[in-house]
Amino acid sequence: MRCRWLLLPLLLATVTGCGPGGSGSAGPSDEIVLETPDGSEVRLMETIKRPGATATLVNFWSIGCVGCRAELPHLAKLYEKHRDAGFNVIAVNAMDTPDAVSKFVSQHNLPFTVVLNGDGPNDLLQKYNVIAYPTNLIFDSSGKMVERIEGWEEFTMLRALKKAGIGTDASNQKE
User: Fold this and answer.
1) What's the CA gap between 175 and 17, in Å, rounded?
2) How far apart are CA 90 and CA 40, in angstroms?
3) To the nearest 10°, the Cα dihedral for 42, 102, 52, 118?
4) d(C-alpha 23, C-alpha 76), whole Å
5) Helices (H), the chain
6) 20 to 30 A from 36, CA-CA: which of 47, 62, 93, 147?
7) How many CA atoms lie within 13 A of 96 on its CB side?
8) Per residue in 10-51, pLDDT tens?
9) Contact assessment for residue 122 and residue 33, using Cβ atoms and an 8 Å cutoff
10) Do residues 43 and 56 lie in contact, with contact meaning Cβ atoms separated by under 8 Å?
11) Do the bridges between strand 33-35 and strand 41-43 make them parallel or antiparallel, or are there none, so unpaired?
């Protein structure tokens, strides 16, 4: 009987996402390193917490996802509009080859950082329990996730950016 009560907190922590791999944020000891299609490294938390950063949107997408392809131009406009205020976008491609991603980024002139999902401890899909595309995670400058949005929801996106420190008036914006 006593063993059941000892295991209950561990079980609850795992089920509610507070266990290993489901915390929703990375600490300094578990920095995630991802590669761009050309092989350069991007350190996720270092990028999110860089000096001058206000908010970072981490977008999960794939070339074959119609919703993703429709959303990317909206993200590009948001990035262009707010990057001088410390807004950053990291688009994580989850399924495609580096060559296909590089070609897509070039053809669509994506102005933000595009990386490939990692493996093992660098697998963002697993770390943040992403099961649908597009999925957007918005982090403030401390690395805290302030919003998770599945699909393109403009009002929710603008409200979350404001919560993360980007001075967006969600009631007056139309993209």
Assistant:
1) 34
2) 14
3) -30
4) 28
5) 2-15, 44-48, 66-82, 98-108, 124-127, 154-163
6) 147
7) 21
8) 333 333 333 333 344 444 446 899 999 999 999 999 999 999
9) yes
10) no
11) antiparallel
Rg (CA), the chain: 17
At residue 79, the 3 state secondary structure works out as helix
Report whether pLDDT(56) > 80: yes
Structural tokens at position 36: 């761009």
CB atoms within 10 A of CB 112: 20
Q: What one-letter code names the amino acid at 27?
A: G
pLDDT of residue 34: 95
Does the pLDDT value for residue 163 go beyond 50?
yes
Q: What's residue 121's pLDDT?
A: 83
Contact 128, 16 (CB under 8 A): no
Cα separation, 90 vs 111, in Å, equals 10
Structure confidence at residue 30 (pLDDT) = 64
**For residue 126, what are its two tokens?**
């697993």
Location of structure tokens 């139309």: 174
Q: Give the model's confidence band at 151: pLDDT under 50 very low, under 70 low, under 90 confident, else very high.
A: confident
**Residue range 65-115, pLDDT digits in tens:** 999 999 999 999 999 999 999 999 999 998 999 999 999 999 999 999 999
Contact 140, 55 (CB under 8 A): yes
Please tell me what DSSP assigns to residue 22: -
